[in-house]
Amino acid sequence: MTREDEIFKKLKNGDESGVAGLVELYYEDVLRYCMFRLSDRYLAEDAVQETFLKVFRYFDDYRHRGRFRAFLYKVAGNTCIDMMRKKRWDPIPEDAAQEEKGIQKTEEREDFLQIIRKLPPELGEIVFLRFSQELKLREIAETMEIPLRTVQSRLRRALKLLRTEMEQGEEGTGYKEGSDKTEIRKGGRAK
Predict the structure, then answer these.
(1) Contact call for residues 7 and 28 (beta carbons, < 8 A)
(2) Would residue 101 be called left, alpha or beta, if left means φ above 0 and alpha means ψ between -120 and 50 degrees?
(3) Residues 6+ positions from 110 with CB-CB distance below 8 Å
(4) DSSP one-letter code for 7
(5) What pTM value is reported for the model?
């Protein structure tokens, strides 16, 4: 029995500690996802709180079938979209330091985010969910409400684009390290 299953068993038996358990289990992962979607830590924290409020508000209607994480990410994604629609803000510069533990971890995370933000949004989100959040392909399909085969093909396409980008960076053609003007177009070419 997984920790998630134990928590749902507590909730089914009326044990309120299950609520705190679910938040504790998924808070950091959902926060990273919301930060990816919103690029503002404070707005992302608000989105996470709103996500958990929505989940628990309608929790009685949810039927646990071992897919709670995908359901949670789906709610978080929709919450981020709602927040972007409601609020206009100036984006934080990409080189702004994040409030993460350890400078090296922050730098690696920023490098990863800069790389995947060069991808078209539908590809970048799949790469982020797969490698940063470690979601399974099936969970990504449920989160994004697209077929599993589409997730697989988009992930392959994204990895091919990233490989091409890295090869160009190594060869010195079309990409200069530290240049923030390089983007990957939908056709897969750096501009």
Answers:
(1) no
(2) beta
(3) 94, 95, 98
(4) H
(5) 0.55
